[in-house]
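Deviation from plan, reported transparently: 3-isopropylmalic acid complex.
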Amino acid sequence: MKYSIAVIKGDGIGPEITEAAIEVLNAVGLKFGHEFAYSYPLMGGAAIDATGVPLPDETVSICKAADAVLLGAVGGPKWDALPGDKRPEKGLLGIRSALGLYANLRPALLYPELSAASPLRTDISSAGIDLIVVRELIGGIYFGDRGSRQGRYGEEAFDTESYSAFEVERIAKVAFDLARKRRGKVTSVDKANVLDSSRLWRATVASVAKQYPDITLENMFVDNCAMQLVKNPAQFDVLLTSNMFGDILSDEAAMITGSIGLLPSSSVGEKYALYEPIHGSAPDIAGTDTADPIATILSASMLLSMSLHLSEEAAAVDNAIKKVLSEGWRTPDICGEGCKKVGCRLMGKLIAERL
Ligand code: IPM
Ligand code: MG
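Because the crystal trials were delayed, the predicted structure below was used instead.
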């Protein structure tokens, strides 16, 4: 079969990690007899440099026309001085919103091969980590009213956290449906002891839960959740969060599995889907061939199974990653004593070869 994939390379390490993922996708194509046709629309800093805006209209149309979108990462110090609505990150928020990608799925899995790379004590990590953050992606404080004004103490700025019952219901259903395919537990994260938006969140999740009597629902305050993630991450199956809380907790969930370079994500809506690592563009190591491409390669694997319905192919990619890790190959972020250190490019090549 022939598939079209829009690849947004982005900034910083974005080009390196997406190239590694393309190498793996091409190997999948060869082995299973598929043809992947790539297009490379611009977004983020690269788009600002070329066109003056972080998300050109053309990028949105290319992404809509493709079977799926793979994204590296955007942003960097070069564009830090730009006003908020012209920054590279605005492009990312813009594409999520333009494609209606309200559900961001971020699985965090501790590979037994990488348990030594986890910063957690072994008595904690040995219980295993296999959770998924279901993060609402196109609402909340990221998209609420914002601005600046003169206040009691002079200049002030504000951002607003706002959720409708509709938005909460929509994302809660994704979490409950996923829990059904997993271990049957949803932990909904909020700050209902303080925030009105969280109280609506909690009440709405409770009403959705009635349609899922087979699923255990637990509510947890976000501060406690941050603590529980390092104290006893094995307790979690599906973590349901707002946009902001999911952003914060998914970095933590990634790190406890060994490195932020390992966590993939899929962002899905009714019609479109985009796949990206959860980490940023790491400008400090860009161009040094030291980035970890695994999160992006795992994102490509999610793309294969979720958008192209090629589950055998996706499983082959996951197995190739496990194989390379069990052989001891490591990028610097997960390289402990005695590991076989490789760069981004070689890591991609090794995974492609193991398919
Ligand atoms: C992420 C990132 C983005 C976010 C940034 C780059 C806008 O941190 O995908 O987690 O906050 O959503
Ligand atoms: Mg983040």
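The chain has a mean pLDDT of 97. We consider this an acceptable substitute for the interim report.
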